[in-house]
Amino acid sequence: VVIHPFKTIELQMMKKGFKMEVGQYIFVKCPAVSKLEWHPFTLTSAPEEDYFSIHIRIVGDWTEGLFNACGCDKQEFQEAWKLPKIAVDGPFGTASEDVFRYETVMLVGAGIGVTPFASVLKSVWYKYCHDATNLKLKKIYFYWLCRDTHAFEWFADLLQSLEAQMQERNNADFLSYNIYLTGWDETQATHFVVHHEEEKDVITGLKQKTLYGRPNWENEFKTIAGKHPGSRIGVFLCGPEGLADTLNKQSISNSEADPRGVHFIFNKENF
């Protein structure tokens, strides 16, 4: 059990014969908290890792009960045998393997929809490190839209470690990501702009600066189309229905009629 900031815990589990794909979820039961309740959680580990993990935000009775059952409310380190029994059902859901079928992809995660991309981004990076020449995927544009990053501090940490590893391998360009704080506007953000000259972002600690408001999708699509002429670009979303409509329309209007031109293929998998 790993405790992350802002009352989020990560459960890392091992089970013989457990096989998962990116973008899948499991049902979890903790008999010490409730003998009947099962709750679904998206897997945040990559298939390449030797454990499977979920991230749980403490926001209600059951999660509070699990938090306490795992001894997270105590200061001292908990021995493994003191941890509660956990029952797991799954994994379920469609695998998001389609991400690996494109050379260029746009990944969009909104709010809690960012969770499955932890699995996707980790898996892409493992595949890249293991055998970069056979990996079709060469470029990821990742958009993370959230009201504030507090709930997903752990996700910013994950991006930070990916950023560092990519720089070590001199391939910082493999992943371009943009973080949009949708609950803010520029006027509220002006006191952060004072620190804008600093090398790392004040809010996330990442090299990529946080943006305020919502993306101008038309500009984003046009820019990406300009950089990758004549290619098929996969667009993947995990987020609300309204955003799905917007991205679908942009994918159609920015694809060329000529089969040799650029084509955006919208995949609304509910990761």
Going by CATH, the homologous superfamily of the largest domain would be Nucleotide-binding domain of ferredoxin-NADP reductase (FNR) module
Read across the widest sheet, the strand sequence of neighbours is 10-9-8-7-11-12
Question: At the third CATH level, what is the topology name of the largest domain?
Answer: Rossmann fold
Structural class: alpha/beta
Helix content: 25-40%
Shape: globular
> What is the CATH level 1 assignment of the largest domain?
Alpha Beta
What do you see in this structure?
It is found in: Cell membrane. Pfam families: FAD_binding_8, NAD_binding_6. Its cofactor is FAD. The chain is α/β, with parallel strands linked by helices and 271 residues long. It folds into two domains: 2-92, Elongation Factor Tu (Ef-tu), domain 3; 96-268, 3-Layer(aba) Sandwich (Rossmann fold). The protein has helices at 61-69, 115-131, 153-168, 186-193, 217-227, 241-253, and strands spanning 2-4, 8-13, 25-29, 39-42, 52-57, 87-92, 104-110, 139-146, 175-181, 210-212, 232-238, 263-267. The protein has a six-stranded parallel β-sheet with strand order 10-9-8-7-11-12, with helices on both faces. A three-stranded antiparallel β-sheet has the order 1-2-5, with no helix packed on it. The radius of gyration is 20 Å and the shape is globular.
